[in-house]
Amino acid sequence: MKKLVIAEKPSVGRDIARVLGCKQQGKKYIEGNEYIITWGLGHLVTLADPEGYDKKLKTWRMEDLPMMPERFKLVVIPQTRGQFQAVKSLIERKDVGEIIIATDAGREGELVARWILAKAGNKKPLKRLWISSVTDKAIREGFAHLKNAKEYENLYHAATARAESDWLVGMNATRALTCKYNAQLSCGRVQTPTLAMIAAREEEIRHFTPKPYYGLQLIGKGITFTWKDKKSGSAATFSREKNEEIYKKILGKTVEVIEVKKTKKTSQPEGLYDLTDLSRDANQRFGFSAKQTLNIMQSLYEHHKVLTYPRTDSRYLTTDVAETLRERVEAIAVGPYRSFTNTVLKGKITPKKSFVNNQKVSDHHAIIPTEQPVILAQLSVDERKIFDLVVRRFLAVLYPPYEYEQTKITIQCEGETFFAEGNVPLNRGYKEVTAPEGDENGKVFPSLKEGEVIGEFTLKKTEGKTKPPARFTEGTLLKAMENPVKYMQQKDAKAAKTLQETGGLGTVATRADIIDKLFGSYLIEKKDNEIFITGKAKQLLSLVPEDLKKPELTAEWESRLSAIAKGKASDRKFMKEIETYTKELMKQIQNGTGTFRHDNLTNKVCPECGKRLLLVNGKQGKLYVCQDRECGYKERISRMTNARCPVCHKKMELIGAKENQKFVCSCGHKESMQAFENRRKKEGAGVSKKDVANYMKKMKKEEKQPLNNALADALANLKL
């Protein structure tokens, strides 16, 4: 009898087939003597839309809510029906005696396979392949140590409970809000608290009043000393009078050196990357969105096989993975990394407690290189950037610490204290890998002794103003979602602890999708790299039930789901409580007294239904969108491109059509398409005519998709 292996995607399926020696190519599978390898295309099966239970639910009406299926139905996703039928027929083959689940090792990966098997009516025994990278070695070892699929039954129950509870709350609340206010308003237990956090930050900024502060600098013996308040230890005061008083008091006096302290110190490298930290750094350094970083990581994991599984919330390795460190270092001994890897490979590689800890790894360890040798020339520019971040973090933890000598000089004048501090590198250690030469700001001070008097010096007043908190970027928003404790409305210590233990809002696998959904629903928009909340979002938050805006809700859910996954709680009991909660939400929305008004209405009329169009800022540019949710008309009027402004080097927007197209920058620079192409030709680089044509083709394809279908798709695959 043969064994059927179900992978999550074709690329992984082909890799498994090659390693297992399967060479007979079928249309949607690959067969060998012992194994048949097939795959999903991500999810092939999903929860049925409301109309799948009752045709009348195709029309959104308040009187039909709440929708409470007695038993949730699974349906095949229409776009992937052919692949599902192929997998089903393989499951039913008489010569198949066992099925091996080889989807991604995590909650959602488990759901992908189990729903396929459930919909296909499988009764055959199951095994589980559980690996963190898809290198040949990992696949071979994984198949040599297959797990009993029963070990993952509870993980499947938790995944199903997550999907069904999000369906109940998301579908019902979204329909209720949309029907009540006749506008496309969606909400959910993760996206709504995330939106509330952005709104809270916006309010902080709006109500912030800058406060002036004052300080003093004393320059003597070639050293700049900074005044420090004796009581508070602050280097500034909010009192101009106090600052002036100190200035006058010490002007023309002599200064005495009261302490010269030299201390040898060490600095340890930052930990290995999890997905959140990697996404934050990629956003900060390259402007990549969370979704973009995840897609690049997925390619480096699945296609190139040079990095381990991306959807991880751990920054540690297990002891068994630590045994493979030398092979991983050898695999990246190329190009700019060769000198660093040679240094590491010369000595003994010792796993340190700072990055090896079995207790701090749940499903997957930190993101590190695999044992597969990398060919840098095969990576795209963006893939090289992400790969470089991961490799340097990885090598840094294998290097010695950074050692430096800290010199702190304290002087006094008329009872007022000033200080100067500087570091001199002694051993650059891990900074050889992570930082360019000379970034340590080393300061070598002239030799001063305690008791020495400085007679000649310059005194300088300094002043500034306090700044409001920074607006969120995608990187900082991801970190806030991971640890949203400070945004809790009630300072509940137990809920705060739960939030931290369960990893905050959403999971490391879903946060990028949540942020993308907020952009796609026109609830947030981006200016440069900063996130702004829209008028639509502000109104939505005023209409949504209070409970849905609190991070505590998702903390409680994730805690319960985690307990279900560990076999410590009942999924059925959890779902009963969710049903009760959904009914309460419906009452709150139905009894709401708020109103919704579009604040972005234009005078341009929809060519399909005659209603006025809305002007929205999409992630890729501006669009006209019909206000009627059932119409769905949209028209793109500008696109954000990768073309850089010759004046300020920011990305430019492409506006207009055909021969009237032109590039416009936020700094005011404008140039026609012809002028742009001529300039780029002269520079001999950049965006070609073909690139622009391909980009335009892609955007036109997007425009043809009606808005209501996109909303329906979003709701059908709700990841709230």
UniProtKB/TrEMBL annotation:
Q: Where does Mg(2+) bind?
A: 8, 104
Write out the entry's keywords from A to Z: DNA-binding, Isomerase, Magnesium, Metal-binding, Topoisomerase
Question: The Toprim domain covers which part of the protein?
Answer: 2-135
Give me the reactions it catalyses: ATP-independent breakage of single-stranded DNA, followed by passage and rejoining
In UniProt terms, what function does this protein have?
A: Releases the supercoiling and torsional tension of DNA, which is introduced during the DNA replication and transcription, by transiently cleaving and rejoining one strand of the DNA duplex. Introduces a single-strand break via transesterification at a target site in duplex DNA. The scissile phosphodiester is attacked by the catalytic tyrosine of the enzyme, resulting in the formation of a DNA-(5'-phosphotyrosyl)-enzyme intermediate and the expulsion of a 3'-OH DNA strand. The free DNA strand then undergoes passage around the unbroken strand, thus removing DNA supercoils.
What InterPro entries does this protein's entry cite? Topo_IA (IPR000380), Topo_IA_2 (IPR003601), Topo_IA_AS (IPR023406), Topo_IA_cen (IPR013497), Topo_IA_cen_sub1 (IPR013824), Topo_IA_cen_sub2 (IPR013825), Topo_IA_cen_sub3 (IPR013826), Topo_IA_core_domain (IPR023405)
- Which region ranges are annotated with the description Interaction with DNA? 186-191
Q: EC no.?
A: 5.6.2.1
Which Gene3D superfamilies does the UniProt record give?
Answer: 3.40.50.140, Topoisomerase I, domain 2 (1.10.460.10), Topoisomerase I, domain 3 (2.70.20.10), Topoisomerase I, domain 4 (1.10.290.10)
Its domain of life reads Bacteria
Record flagged with keyword Isomerase: yes
Q: Active-site residues?
A: 309 (o-(5'-phospho-dna)-tyrosine intermediate)
Q: Where is the Topo IA-type catalytic domain?
A: 152-586
Q: Name one GO biological process term.
A: DNA repair
Keyword hit for Magnesium: yes
Name the family.
Belongs to the type IA topoisomerase family.
Which Pfam families does the protein's record reference?
A: Topoisom_bac, Toprim
Q: What class of enzyme is it?
A: isomerase
Q: What is this protein called?
A: DNA topoisomerase 3
The site annotation (Interaction with DNA) covers 60, 167, 175, 311
Q: Annotated Gene Ontology MF terms?
A: DNA binding; DNA topoisomerase type I (single strand cut, ATP-independent) activity; magnesium ion binding
